[in-house]
Write a structure and sequence with these properties.
Structural class: alpha+beta
Distance between the termini: 37 Å
Number of helices: 3
Length: about 200
């Protein structure tokens, strides 16, 4: 399974919500970034499944295949606090880009990260099918022909392509850039929006 959220998942809440589908007693496995092996964890209170990370669970039966992702935590931290803390940590000195639909944040924020140390992963964007009204924003890596939710900024890069997709043609959409001063300070780049279409 992949954690599709921009926030950490409360492991105990995930097990509770999916108790009819998974076997919580067998815990879950997370891929260790240190040695590339799967490490066993239990669904204990306070346990966290990191944002954008794959994890392994044991299903109750061979026909079970649907899981839910809880939006509230079972511990004392609120879900909004957890989400904001995770998102802020992911941004650091990176440029964030959020679509606003009628003035309200809609869909996932895209992040252009200054990957100076070379150890931060890019995260591909799963593009939703036609007919989906939630607007999506992403960066397009023309060299790899990929849409990314999180993309690296290469020093000296002259242009970064932004993609926007929605089936809702009636609502007013706008782009909101975040963390601009930190991004400029860390890269020396100037952020200028240019519509080429």
């Amino acid at each position: 399974i992949g954690n599709p959220l921009l926030a950490d998942i409360d492991a105990a809440a995930f097990a509770e919500v999916n108790a009819s589908t998974i076997d919580p007693a067998k815990g879950y496995k997370l891929l260790s970034e240190e040695d590339g092996t799967w490490k066993q964890h239990q669904f204990n209170p306070g346990g966290i499944i990191p944002a954008w990370k794959a994890f392994i669970v044991t299903l109750n039966s061979s026909g079970a295949s649907t899981v839910s992702f809880p939006l509230t935590a079972t511990n004392t931290r609120s879900a909004s606090t957890t989400a904001r803390a995770s998102y802020t940590g992911a941004v650091g000195n990176s440029l964030s880009l959020q679509l606003l639909k009628e003035g309200a944040a809609s869909g996932d924020a895209a992040v252009l990260q200054n990957n100076q140390d070379g150890n931060s992963p890019e995260v591909r964007k799963m593009i939703l099918p036609e007919g989906h009204a939630t607007p999506e924003v992403f960066f397009i890596d023309s060299e790899k022909d990929a849409a990314n939710l999180i993309q690296h900024y290469t020093p000296g890069q002259k242009e970064v392509t932004i993609g926007v997709k929605t089936s809702d043609t009636r609502s007013r959409l706008s782009l909101e850039f975040g963390n601009i001063p930190a991004f400029i300070a860390s890269t020396g780049a100037k952020a200028i929006l240019k519509d080429t279409y």
